[in-house]
Amino acid sequence: MKVDLFDFELPPERIALRPAVPRDAARLLVLAGDTTRDLIVRDLPGQLRAGDCLVFNDTRVIPAQLEGRRGDASIGATLHKREGPRRWRAFIRNAKRLRDGDRIDFGNHVAAIASDRADDGSFALDFAGDEPVELLLERAGRMPLPPYIAARRPTDAQDAADYQTMFAAEPGAVAAPTAALHFTPDLIGALDAAGIAHETLTLHVGAGTFLPVKADDTADHRMHAEWGRIDTATADRLNAVRAAGGRVIAVGTTSLRLIESATGPDRVIRPFDGDTSIFITPGYVFGGIDGLLTNFHLPRSTLFMLVSALMGRERMQAAYAHAIAHGYRFYSYGDASLLLPSS
């Protein structure tokens, strides 16, 4: 499909620079079949059914943004995928000044050797020393806010809390699973009381989630791989939800992509441990999920293509036009949508 089909105009003032306070006070656009409702996230329990199950991503964002020097050259690095105990694949700013074997000094006694430049311009970074890389990043790195926020204001101490979900437990993401940012202990308590279960899985979100689609046709776009895991017990419980007539509702596109990667043609969710580069566009037949709670996505992005595959492209174009006209806030710190297709 032509990428232009997934374009739309978004006024810059619709991009949220801070999250709603409290988190569950964010607005919620509900698309259920052919109906559209304007609510708030706190209303979510009333939009689901007893026996349904929400699936959250428990990845934790690491301080993956680094600023350093190679000689007299300033080098920026955004880690996006772990390749070994001390090796990370990274997108590099000012990559033309970097060669295989160069040492980058990130300050605070943190350094890495660059190697293995890939076709996308990324490098492998091997961190020097014996300290765990996680400690090095805590010392020298900063929270990797999405570029559409970072271009308009600096990262600050508040982002260290704002850009983690209440489920964050497994360090390794360089972007938050932002749909889950809307959840609070009070909201989870209300969902529990309504008979709506929740489960967690892990998918370490990479910086590739922010990369623009440069191809003119979706067939020519290649997704970056991300590592994820669903254990046997979780897969069994999710299958039991559907066997009992409940719905599996992914919270965020990261949870959805991992569930779909783990689901066979028989619609059974299986344990999963490895990389996925699944790319979902209109025409895809969903096998593992029955709905999605997600934020509002960038035009021409793989994530807008995904929601268009779930609900229909014209339906999502109309829904986004409604959201823009009615003042919804977009992107990582913005409002949410609940997508429940008729089927």
UniProtKB/TrEMBL annotation:
It comes from the Bacteria. Keywords: Cytoplasm, Queuosine biosynthesis, S-adenosyl-L-methionine, Transferase. InterPro entries: QueA, QueA_dom1, QueA_dom2, QueA_sf. Its main location: cytoplasm. Gene3D superfamilies: QueA-like (2.40.10.240). It catalyses: 7-aminomethyl-7-carbaguanosine(34) in tRNA + S-adenosyl-L-methionine = epoxyqueuosine(34) in tRNA + adenine + L-methionine + 2 H(+). Pathway: tRNA modification; tRNA-queuosine biosynthesis. The keyword S-adenosyl-L-methionine applies. Pfam families: Queuosine_synth. The keyword Transferase applies. Transfers and isomerizes the ribose moiety from AdoMet to the 7-aminomethyl group of 7-deazaguanine (preQ1-tRNA) to give epoxyqueuosine (oQ-tRNA). Monomer. This is S-adenosylmethionine:tRNA ribosyltransferase-isomerase. It comes from Sphingomonas insulae.
